[in-house]
Design a protein that fits this description.
Blueprint (H helix, E strand, L loop, with lengths): L2 H7 L7 H20 L2 H21 L7 E3 L2 E3 L1 H31 L2 H6 L5 H29 L9 H25 L8 H16 L11 H7 L3 H13 L15 H22 L7
Antiparallel strand pairs: 1-2
Length: 284
């Protein structure tokens, strides 16, 4: 039996909460430093939604509104703001976190961490902390670009901002645990991006991120409604778009209760799968 395996097996079963939190805070700092030093992560997960939103908002600025009613209108560029907010959280969680953990498992990083006193919970709290910080900065940058560059108006009702906050946090938790789960799929460092990125791309297209959700075929809407990204996008639209935008949704209503149930269910499923499949040491 290897020394690493012995070290992993002899860890204390329970640790003081203070020790776990101190280790987690240190891991957040380490994860953030590693994140900003990776140019690929900055471009393809942090700046990608901002750049894509800028392209879409510019390209569709002269297109007629998606809907006009009672003196209100929803333009195509406005519809891309909640879509890119949802995509940003999704890419940071499922894609970036999934690739990160897959690479760390296959290049031996996790095996080396297993030989340290770092608790598993602190490792994951460090990942989630990095995800929370970068996602909040990314969302703030998106809203700043939307208001200052493209002159979009943000909601003034506190209830809409509360909706945005809980949908954002629920989506972040959901996508974080799903990122841990999908990280178990790649078998090598080289295959990490090749396996996870196509999955993330397909899910974005069928969840109404790049095209209006109601424009998708009925069978594809049914499939997408079984997945969490469509509900995060729905919640973001409910928070940021005028109320007339609900007529562009399936059934013509904001179904935030179902969104909460769907995200909670997926977070639970992802947590169970991640806990059951995560290993410090790569299986042969």
């Amino acid at each position: 039996m290897s020394a690493t395996a012995v070290r992993q097996d002899t860890r204390p079963r329970s640790l003081p909460a203070g020790h776990v939190l101190r280790c987690a805070a240190d891991r957040v700092r380490v994860e953030l430093l590693q994140y900003v030093r990776r140019s690929d992560a900055l471009v393809f997960t942090f700046l990608f939604p901002v750049l894509l939103f800028s392209i879409f908002a510019s390209a569709f600025s002269a297109v007629p509104p998606l809907i006009e009613m009672g003196g209100e209108a929803v333009t195509q560029p406005e519809s891309y703001l909640p879509a890119m907010l949802a995509a940003g959280v999704f890419l940071s969680g499922v894609q970036n976190l999934g690739v990160e953990i897959a690479v760390e498992r296959n290049d031996g990083t996790l095996q080396r961490l297993a030989a340290t006193p770092l608790p598993v919970l602190s490792y994951f709290l460090g990942k989630v902390g990095q995800l929370l910080v970068t996602s909040l900065v990314q969302a703030g940058l998106l809203l700043l670009v939307a208001t200052t560059v493209f002159g979009m108006a943000l909601p003034t009702e506190p209830g809409r901002w509360l909706t945005l906050a809980w949908v954002f946090l629920a989506g972040l938790v959901c996508f974080a645990v799903l990122g841990v789960a999908v990280a178990q799929l790649p078998r090598t460092v080289a295959s990490a991006s090749a396996v996870i990125i196509p999955i993330a791309l397909v899910l974005q297209f069928i969840s109404g991120i790049y095209v209006p959700f109601v424009a998708l075929p009925d069978w594809l809407q049914t499939v997408a409604n079984l997945l969490p990204l469509a509900w995060v996008g729905h919640g973001m639209r409910a928070a940021l778009l005028p109320d007339i935008a609900r007529h562009l949704e399936v059934g013509g209503v904001w179904d935030l209760q179902t969104a909460a149930i769907a995200l909670g269910g997926w977070a639970l499923v992802g947590t169970v799968v991640a806990a059951a499949t995560f290993r410090w040491i790569k299986r042969s």
